[in-house]
Amino acid sequence: MKNNCYSVIIAGGKGTRFWPLSRAQRPKQLLKILSNRSLIDETAERVHTLTHSSRTLVVTVAEQVDAMRKELRALPRANFIAEPQGKNTAPCIGLAALEVLRRDPDGVMIILPADHWVANVKAFQQTLQAAVKLAVRQDRLITIGIRPDYPETGYGYIMKGKMTDGAAKPASFQVRRFTEKPNATLAKKLVRQGSLWNSGIFVWQAATLIDLLNRYQPEIGARLGTIDKAAKGKSLGNPNPKLRAVIAREYQKMPSISIDYAVLEKAGAEGKVLTVEADFGWSDVGSWAAVHRMMHKDAHGNAGNGRWLQLGAKNCLIHSPDRLVVLLGIENAVVVDTADALLVGALNRSQEVRELVDELQRQGLGHYTIK
Fold first, then answer.
1. Euclidean distance between CA atoms 313 and 302, whole angstroms
2. Across the strands, what pairs with 326?
3. CATH class of 5-283
């Protein structure tokens, strides 16, 4: 891979999806759910052959910078860019684009969420290599679309248009339309039509993204321009107090909006977005149910970490590193045991854990969501 490519790992999670294991100060990307390595550590390792650690950037909220640096010690300190507050993905990716442009005006960005799972790392790397070539050759925004295994309602979908090059492997297509988190009926229809899961992995030239932010989101573009002017060529990963104050002031004025709504949907309508169809085994690890799908199961469909015993239990997920959990005749359950909190719930409702965390706050139990 050319040395003008930069991996940008987005790591601003709040620690709500995997409560009680995840907390505000221990978000999902720092958890060791599927192996003995954290999700963000595995993400950084996957892109190591594509972009050296010197060209791997991490964007996270300010209060998590120290934890991320501790987790990814191989990365230079200046490669961690702190958001003063979470503003969804458009502002943080724009901030990263400024840093890439400072280092290389021709820089190409590979945008990666910090908390995904990939089965076939070699196929993943080959897909991204193809996407980088496509982004440079056609000056387009590239999305990585995943062939669906089932009609998931928690993912966004990409509707494919015309194939761009019939001989290329993996295949790439014009993007016709994005559909966000459909209901079950629509999800089944989209799968039948050959639509792809939107992985949230993107590739584009940093200069192209800044141009499109200025065009489609002038409020964000103007604020980023002010930050860039104040930086005077200095790294955003190691700002002095004056620059840090400018970033905080301008960031507060930016709208909170995803890169999908801010740029991709608008650019797609003008034919500026392509998708590379991928099949490397992927999940965004978005819920305890997703973890259950990826884990090795016993003959009754049970899976887990730690100490557990089942007696007539079926299709359950257990996480209990310290205490023995015994499941007696229950089905389709998730049990997560931690030092100060226990979750017992229906596995098929694990997407609702976010709402549970909100309810803890309303009930005056917010301290159970922090550490």
1. 8
2. 309
3. alpha beta
